[in-house]
Amino acid sequence: MTIDISPELRKKCVDTIRTLAMDGVEAAKSGHPGMPMGMADLAFVLWTETLRVDARDPAWPNRDRFVVSNGHGSMLLYALLHLGGFDLPMSELRRFRQLGSRTPGHPEHGHAPGVETTTGPLGQGIGNAVGMALGARMAAARFPAEGGFSPIDHRVVCLAGDGCMMEGVASEAASLAGHLGLGNLVVVYDDNLITIDGATKLAFTEDVCKRYEAYGWHTQRVDGHDAGAVSAAVSAAIAVGDRPSLIAARTTIGFGSPGKAGSHKSHGAPLGPDEVRRTKEALGWPVEPAFLVPDEVRAVFDARRREGERAHDAWRSRMEPWRAAHPELAARWDAMLARRAPDDLDERLVRAVPVADDLATRAQSGKAIQVVAREVPSLVSGSADLAESNNNLVEGASYVTSADASGRNIAFGVREHGMGALVNGLALHGFWLPIGATFLVFSDYMRPSIRLAALMKQRSVFVFTHDSVLLGEDGPTHQPIEHLWALRVIPDLDVWRPADGLETAMMWAWIAMRAQGPVATALTRQKAPALARREGFDRRDVWRGGYVVTDPQERADAVLIATGSEVAVAMEARKELAAREVTLRVVSMPSVNRFLAEDAAYREQVLPKGLPRASLEAGVTLPWRGIVGSDGLALGIDTFGASAPEKQLREAFGLNGKAVAERVADWLGR
To answer: Active-site positions?
Structure first.
């Protein structure tokens, strides 16, 4: 800091953080006071000596990112944001964990300025922080330093606890961070030896530093209550430019509490009025009023806030001449931050993708990705060791490596859960439209990350291929059955299962042009025939999630709703039934979520009231009852799959036109 601070004033600042956390939890009658009380010393060092932020502009692209992975200790973050001058007034700290407050029980991105990501599920914050650090390294490679100035040179600092260190998602992310040498990442580990059930030795006795050293990290151990030691350790970590750093800080959970310090009893419950009083007395702090912030403490944080403003102003003063000297780079900067796509991207995609060819939708998707990559420089793509199967690499682009981060392809390795968290971190970083890809059946490994992407409404793209039993001989371990609906029931997640090349092209146009949150795709391994659509078809009706593919000239006897590769089967069944004088309207529903979000008039236009409804999808049937009704027919698969060639599987599971026609005819009594 540029101002002098005495040991007494430092203690008063740290105790302010502690007591704000205690009072917030006590007012809510729920929460986790122990972590903020234990981490207050080292958090004060980070906030006043290390982090470069500007409370006036929480979205400043070159700000340092501060992630609290052990998000149950959210009052620590809220106290720091309030003291740091962010738009988080004391009234919001008093409303901790209350309905409609900006201070929910765990930090939620978008609720309060300065909250970089939603945390709570332990380990996810570490994964997000790795993604942010990777995003910063990749951005810096695209906007290198000129004349001693770099538009991007920020760091990512992450707080984490024992729970984060136990969760597998953090291990996957940390392994990749070490492999990529992300020297702009510092993780401070609250090594307090306590979890909810008691001492960590009940289940966790490994040497975390040695594990992280094996990952390729720089590690240090420090007394988390020794400000000088913490400051020196952070400086040493920052000086290491070729590796991420882990600082294992030994702290006392519930520090200052006479009756609960060092105990799991301070972890997940209020201290209680008597213990709050005793703790304040032990700290030499006034028992009343609650939520006290002494003027001299505000002065310290105000001085640090002004330092952040000056750092931003200095960056801005150099950014303008940089723009003038490098107009092409400046244009790329703006394009990447905007993540915008051309208004006619759908037309370009339909022209460039071989939509008339009978190709697997994963192959059509691969063609579409190349078009989007040319038009949207923010798009980057990676796979969990399945890129050749997922068809999602950016052609002509290199992989990101520890030596060169300028590539557009990311090798996530066999780390699906870590990949999901990293993709979210890349999206949160602000520059990137990131893709993470694997087989649909492995979306289960990623579900917590996908759910958080939806909760945060981030533009994360999850490309899933091998979308049904029709992938063939790999068998039931690799054949998704329940997975489509498991994804569809996640709020604010768009799930797309395109039927052919045209729908696939329009899906990618939606992702680049219209999506306001995360998207999951389900793409075929087997070929999908190009559909013949009725006269007057508007390709942008695909964006409405469901539309009429073909209709009889006379009134239909029923409507058959299908998705993905089953739309072609529905068309075959329609022909079979025509010979029996049964007429079908065929509806393709590439995105159930988007269709159900349409207005009632459009939904009824596609699915008229009174017209019997049947559905066809190579997956579980029960959720379709909500669309076809109790009298409708839901065709699909309610068992696990089998290992066999595609043709045999079609016959075994009734996924051909003849079998579907028989079922529909029986249902209609024809």
So the answer is: 416
